[in-house]
Specification:
Blueprint lengths: L5 H15 L4 H11 L1 E2 L1 E3 L5 E2 L14 E2 L3 H7 L1 E2 L1 H14 L4 E8 L9 E7 L4 H18 L4 H5 L1 E6 L9 H11 L3
Parallel strand pairs: 1-5
Antiparallel strand pairs: 2-3, 2-4, 6-7, 6-8
């Protein structure tokens, strides 16, 4: 990890300490709502891109850089994939049983389809989580020009692949699909 100055290093250490003090899934959700926003880090420029930052959606979208949990805590911005990775990290360290899923829509499932990741743990109803995730993806898909036919088909994949071990979106989705081949 690169730090431009000691202040950033101290801030990250404080963020990590605060994250490590979380004791319940509810407190994890509270922490993420307060400290993590939707967005991504550009692969080539290291800049944060988010709907909350001026200029979002203007011009060509930069290439996405998958972040590990420490990088997400540092930037404060992540996609659903990275936020799920942060949850995986916490649930694993706190000895919870959980599963992670990738949900995709489209008449022909491919890397270009709208996708959303989610984590389900022992106290949650997976069907409720999937329905909530579908609503998010449908909204994004409709805004991207998806047809009714596209929205009729979806695929749900359980996965163990680490987002940060992949170079980009296509590699992540390909590896998740490969994990689920018979």
């Amino acid at each position: 990890m690169n730090f431009e100055n000691k202040k950033e290093a101290i801030q990250l250490t404080d963020q990590m300490k605060e994250f490590e003090k979380i004791e319940t899934p509810e407190k994890l959700l509270d922490y993420m709502r307060s400290n993590i926003r939707y967005g991504f880090v550009g692969k080539n420029d290291g800049k944060v891109y988010s709907p909350q930052i001026e200029g979002w959606g203007e011009g060509e979208s930069p290439e996405y850089k998958p972040q590990d949990p420490e990088e997400l805590l540092e930037s404060g911005y992540g996609t659903c994939w990275e936020q799920t990775e942060l949850e995986k990290d916490w649930f694993s360290k706190n000895n919870f049983e959980f599963k992670t899923f990738l949900l995709m829509f489209g008449k022909n499932i491919s890397q270009k389809n709208p996708a959303h990741t989610l984590l389900a743990y022992e106290d949650e109803e997976l069907d409720d989580l999937i329905e909530a995730a579908k609503k998010i993806i449908i909204s994004n898909a409709v805004n991207s020009g998806a047809t009714d036919e596209d929205l009729e088909k979806y695929a749900l994949y359980e996965y163990k692949t680490l987002v940060s071990s992949c170079s980009d979106r296509d590699e992540f989705i390909s590896r998740v699909i490969e994990e689920n081949q018979p």
